[in-house]
Design brief:
The structure holds 2 protein chains of 2 kinds. Chain A is of the alpha+beta class. Chain A has helices spanning about 20-30, 50-55, 55-75, 90-100, 110-115, 120-130, 145-160, 175-180, 230-240, 245-255; strands at about 5-15, 20, 80-85, 135-140, 165-170, 185-195, 215-220, 260-265, 270-275. Chain A is built from 10 helices and 9 strands. Mean pLDDT of chain A is about 90; it is low at about 205-210. Chain B has one domain (about 5-395): 3-Layer(aba) Sandwich (Peroxisomal Thiolase, Chain A, domain 1). Classes of the chains: A alpha+beta, B alpha/beta. Chains A and B meet through α4, α5, α6, β4 and α7 of A and α4, α6, β6, α7 and α8 of B.
């Protein structure tokens, strides 16, 4: 088995004051000031009207960043294996269910229930994109982004397939917010492809000219996770599991080679070696 | 794909604690379902509750993980010498080279349901409610890795009722990537009001013990279970009855959030992918452990998928009539049942089924069928249209 390496072909990003990857590069490079604003989440394309009505914020977020990434990569999502990583899924929906179950009537709607599964975003993604490829929905608490990246790059390297990774989280309402204070909605997505593979020969490929953003090589490490220099961005990183990706995004925006350490499990980290694509 | 050895495995469900009790129940075609008497549930249905979960005490150092789901995990881990087998693996490979990959659908959400009942007048949750230790989906893997003193990669797959089948796929890839030398895989799901009232809202709960593949089937019997396997690479020599994981097939329906594709397209492609990964043909398979939830739509869609791949040549059954539907733990539980069937030379017949639905054109077993088999397939499908088939085989 060779290295755990993958090429980034496309990215998606939505967070507070971070509206798409292209619009966020200058902020991540430190060339533009960071202006914190509430995350704007659009209605994603592709779903039938009945399904659109059922979408919570979290699923819209996941689908939107996923579609940004596949669009940038020029990849047709319909045969693309996908990994969805989230710490808590749809917190608002969870709150509504627990509140209803605390009453004597204990009435919850069918839609509430099927939206409560952690793989709701994966399910709606598959319906919206008509993708019949395998998808994974995983959770590793604060380390869900690193766990998702590790799962996705392992699929790329071992199964020699292109993979979509989507990591996303959004706040719980009170009273759960007090116990799990995720500050804002944040989603990030990558289309990852095997190193050195001919682009056209991979599942989901529609283009021979997809340009890479960078190459990632992973290893498990003991160094502490990197932090953001900008205090406001560091506050996002520390308070949103999906935003644990920010040091990696900063390195990719800088366009220079180097190693970034991302939070992974207690006292460990995932070392991500970044090499810009030539 | 690279084959893996199930070095040790165990299961605890409403039919019994550990392998021997599970085997006895299967041999006697004895079920563990009973009228629902769980918590504040007032639903006319049957459930499969595991005895002794309430009495299980977590060690002091891990008290923050205390919830029904983690108690059930601990109860199951204590069976069949599983703790000792994992300790040996950690000693041999190093604790950082043993990963933990677990499936659950609702984790410790019961703890949150209870906490919402005990909000103070301002709406605040009780001080002792521990979100990370109970409600968060990762809680069960975090608890298990600490209880087993492991420090390898750890993750929870949370894809509804395919969760603990899909963990075998993640573990296999990590092994192939040389990140680990052994993996604890499994599933743990426990009773809670969310699933009882949720499936009830969807009109998918059975009024009696569920009757998979029966003409009068009327839904699922929700249950709880925990099942684990210790996976390692296949050594040079194996006992003839050692169990290997030979294929994992995964797919998505792209159809509906809570109904399967009516023709079972996703189920069919998952089974075909598992066969392809194992480089086997449909006629090689001796037994199919069906997803077989007992809902009209699942059993209809699954039978079409199975018939399209296997015709009526291969016998299959759903063991959910005995164990109930353990949701996120079903995949691992039924992988253990397939392993027992292969090692003990019988295909378990499904129980509670009185009148086989003639519209479901597959060979459905209602009696145990003795006979040596080499390969078994286990199906697990879930909400969101997520499908996973595992292919297991005896070594000789």
């Amino acid at each position: 088995m060779g290295k755990l390496t993958a090429h980034i072909e496309g990215m998606g990003l939505l967070g507070p004051g971070l509206d798409g990857w292209a619009n966020s590069v200058a902020v991540l490079q430190g060339r533009s000031p960071y202006l914190r604003q509430s995350t704007v989440v659009p209605m994603p394309d592709g779903l039938p009207p009945a399904e659109r009505r059922r979408l919570g914020l979290v699923v819209k977020l996941a689908l939107s960043v996923g579609l940004q990434a596949t669009s940038k990569a020029g990849v047709d999502p319909d045969a693309l294996p996908a990994v969805f990583a989230s710490s808590g899924g749809d917190g608002q929906n969870c709150h509504e269910i627990c509140q209803a179950l605390a009453n004597d009537e204990k009435l919850i709607s069918p839609t509430r229930f099927h939206n409560s599964v952690h793989n709701a975003a994966a399910g709606y993604w598959s319906i919206a994109t008509r993708s019949k490829a395998a998808s994974n929905a995983l959770c590793a608490f604060d380390w869900s982004f690193a766990a998702g990246l590790l799962e996705a790059v392992t699929q790329v390297a071992v199964d020699r397939t292109r993979v979509l990774l989507v990591a996303y989280d959004a706040p719980y309402p009170q009273p759960l917010f007090d116990k799990r204070p995720i500050s804002e909605a944040f989603g990030v997505a990558f289309v990852l492809a095997p190193s050195g593979a001919p682009v056209g020969g991979l599942p989901g490929a529609t283009s021979m000219t997809a340009d890479g953003i960078g190459r990632l090589t992973l290893r498990l490490d003991d160094a502490p996770a990197d932090r953001m220099d900008n205090a406001e961005l560091e506050a996002l990183r520390a308070s949103i599991p999906a935003a644990r990706a920010l040091p990696l995004l900063q390195r990719l925006a800088a366009g220079s080679a180097g190693v970034v350490n991302i939070d992974y499990l207690d006292g460990r980290s995932l070392a991500v070696e970044v090499a810009p694509c030539s | 794909m690279t084959e893996l050895l199930l070095k040790e495995y165990t299961a605890t469900s409403c039919v019994g604690q550990g392998r021997l009790a599970t085997l006895d129940a299967l041999r006697a075609q004895r079920g563990g379902l009973a009228p629902c008497a769980f918590e504040r549930a007032e639903i006319d249905t049957w459930t499969g509750e595991v005895n002794g979960v309430d009495d299980e005490r977590l060690p002091e150092s891990l008290r923050r993980f205390d919830c029904r789901n983690n108690r059930l995990a601990q109860l199951a881990l204590r069976q069949d010498g599983f703790l000792e087998a994992v300790a040996q693996a950690a000693g041999r490979w190093g604790r950082r080279r043993v990963g933990v990959f677990l499936g659950t659908s609702t984790s410790g959400i019961l703890q949150t349901e209870l906490a919402y009942r005990h909000r103070d007048p301002t709406g605040t949750l009780p001080a002792d409610f521990d979100y990370a230790g109970s409600q968060n989906s990762f809680s069960v893997a975090d608890f298990v890795r600490r209880a087993l003193d492991l420090d390898g990669p750890a993750v929870v797959i949370c894809s509804a009722c395919s969760s603990s089948a899909k963990v075998f796929g993640s573990a296999r890839r990590m092994m192939d990537a040389d990140l680990i030398d052994a993996a604890v895989v499994g599933g743990v799901d426990s009773l809670c009001l969310t699933t009882l009232y949720g499936f009830h809202a969807l009109q998918l709960t059975s009024q009696g013990p569920c009757k998979p593949f029966d003409s009068k089937r009327d839904g699922i019997s929700i249950s709880e279970a925990a099942a684990f396997a210790l996976l390692e690479r296949v050594p040079d020599s194996l006992d003839a009855d050692a169990i290997r994981l030979l294929g994992v097939g995964e797919s998505s329906d792209a159809y509906h959030m809570s109904s399967p594709h009516p023709e079972g397209q996703g189920a069919r492609s998952a089974m075909l992918a598992a066969l392809a990964a194992a480089e086997l043909s449909p006629e090689d398979i001796g037994y199919i452990n069906l997803h077989g939830t007992g809902t009209p739509s699942n059993d209809s869609a699954e039978s079409r998928a199975v018939a399209s791949v296997f015709g009526s040549a291969v016998g299959g059954s759903s063991t959910k009539g005995a164990t109930g539907h353990a949701l996120g733990a079903a995949g691992a539980l039924e992988a253990v049942i397939c392993s027992l069937a292969l090692q003990h030379d019988f295909a378990p017949g499904g129980i509670n089924t009185r009148q086989l639905d003639p519209a479901l054109g597959i060979q459905y077993l209602v009696e145990n069928r003795p006979g040596r088999m080499r390969y078994a397939l286990s199906n697990s499908f879930g909400f969101g249209g997520t499908n996973c088939s595992l292919l297991l085989g005896r070594a000789g």
